[in-house]
Amino acid sequence: MMMGSLSLSRPIIRAAFCAFLALLPLGAAWNLVAAQYFPAKALKIGPKLGGVTYDSSVVLSWREIRDGKFQKAVASRVTDAMPVRPLLIRINNEIRFHLFGELTAPNVVRGAKGHLIEQTYLDDYCSRTEGMGAKLAAVALPKLKDIQNFYQKHGAVFVYVVTPSKAAHLPEYFADRVPCPSTPAARTQLVPDYVGALKREGIHVVDTASLIHSLKGTYPFDLFPQGGVHWNDVGGARAVSAVVEEINRLAGHEIIPPFTFTYAMSQPAKGADRELVDLLNVFFPPLGYQTPKVSFQPSVPCAVSPARQLDVAVVGSSFGDLPSRILVEANCLKRLQFYYYATLGRFGGAPYRELQRNLSAGDLNAWRNADVMILEENESFMASAKVAYVDQLRAVVNRP
Hints:
Layout: H1 2-37, H2 62-67, H3 69-81, H4 85-100, E1 108-110, E2 116-118, H5 119-126, H6 132-153, E3 157-163, H7 166-169, H8 171-174, H9 184-200, E4 205-207, H10 208-214, H11 233-251, E5 259-266, H12 275-279, E6 291-298, E7 312-316, H13 321-329, E8 337-340, E9 345-348, E10 353-357, E11 372-378, H14 389-397
Helix pairs in contact: 1-3, 6-9, 6-14, 11-13
């Protein structure tokens, strides 16, 4: 009887497998349609892949065909539409990562103690030259003066926040993994020279980069998570406290209530504490590390705090997200709006969440009415032409 059952199961298995193969093209065809009209109903086998991909434009023209761009774009769309693609990618990545130690995520570098970082931060850190801080300050100064003068003229508070880089905070984990011709002096002096030059010209700078670097070794954990590129909750809390203190000083009285906080270690990592790990797209991600999770104690109940009525705008990079969340939840700034790279997204509300994507120029008019404007730049991209949101803010406030 057992032999009969086994022999019967083989044709059933073969038939099921053949049916599965036959349905794959139908699944891909459905996904090609769903990508345009019903993205939430796309068929995918396996866990969702981490990271963001951008579709190539499919342009049917003789020029595109001759260059091969049309064929490549079509092939890319068809490949992405295959339902089994997430499963196959994770199987491939799992083998390469756990058997050979290879990282399949583009632009991700593994350093000592399992720490991960994005290549762009290392490129910046290793290309610093002596005297660069003063040169960058000279580029940023006229822009920041225009912005600060606007808000001062309108009775608002403006602060410019410099945030830290993981490469600059933990260079010993990464500097030996890539060519790093910059000198130690150039690496460590960039931010102090830049901030010092701006402060001498009267710009209201909150240097959270130097603050976080000065706290190295203060806690029994690094202020950047092993599997992430942004500061952890404790780093964000310390930075926000410094920002709030400066805003209240500039206002002449306490307009934003401060907070105290405690933390407890947590595992496995969640959210931004594992963002680079998720880009590896493996079945068994390396999450055997602890991260601190913070509990906040506002100095006054947010339900009665006047800070709830303040119109606060934060314009910045990905490093502005955690401070914005903290300012909403722990400093009672319920009307705060975080503009991610100016136009890519708008976040805020209670609970803090994404409110809008792909903002138009008209959506930025709200910046002019802010009671408090916080402009954030990371030390890896200060005064850089790579990011345009400082220029966009300047253009908005310079309008007649």
